[in-house]
Amino acid sequence: MLHVVNTIGPIFIVILLGWFLNWRSFIPSGLIAPLNRLVYYLAIPAMIFSGVAKSSFAVHFDPFLLAATLLPVLVVFLIALVTGTVCPLDRHQRGTFIQSSFHGNLGYIGLAVCYYLLGEKGLTSASILAGFLMLFQNLLAVIGYQLVSSSMGKGRRLWFFIKKIGGNPVIGSSLAGMAFSLLKIPIPETIDRCLTIISGMALPSALLVIGASLSFGLIRAYIRLVLAAGLLKLLVLPALGVLAYRLSDIHPAQFLPGLILLAAPTATITFVMAGEMDGSTDLATAAISMITLLSALTFILWLWQFS
Questions:
Q1: What global pTM score does this model have?
Q2: Hey, what's the torsion of the CAs at 36, 38, 44, 47, to 10 degrees?
Q3: Pair 124, 52: CB distance under 8 Å
């Protein structure tokens, strides 16, 4: 228990530090977007590519683990879809509620927890899983908006999906790392050291960016929807993951990277997609902020049980 608290606690202290630094203008609002691009397009991909490329893909990739990780995401997506359709929600809120319920922040928070709790091996396994999981999450998010929103053309939705997948640096770096690992292509020492230097700033910078992006002013207006989405994202989704892992006879030491990714809070891309796909950016902001903070407690709950 103490080991879990000592791992999760500092991660969320750094996130809150990012919020405090933004509040005190040490990280001004105008700096958040360029810093986020630096982390998202350079530092995180360098870390993922370096870790996966130098590992044995055959050792770290488990198709049963992948299937048991993807299936709960699909189930929660369907639960959220039915809930969002049955409940009297504004049409702009439906798609955002659905996405907030299953789309996790893998690149910034999920991988950070994996690295600081499980080390390099855990990070490598999680990075491979994250590539497939991000692809699946984005596909379901677009399908969700497609089903609940009528104001956006199908062609635009399809183009948005293609653009987000093709330009996703986490998916790209994970796939590139898998290719290097499978083909046993060595990374030159100079490039490897460059990647190590760049990778070093990935997770601390990512956590500060997440914190600086938090906004709590809208939570009260959407508290019921946010709590419902948080229940599905932080409790139901990981619980279904544990059930799938147990039924697949996967040992906790093997499924912990997958469980951490499933337990990650709502992704910040939920806000971007809400703006692009006729959703509710206010609901997205409230969900991201509240669910991120609540995940500190639920991470401790899940990891205390299985780490």
A1: 0.89
A2: -150
A3: yes
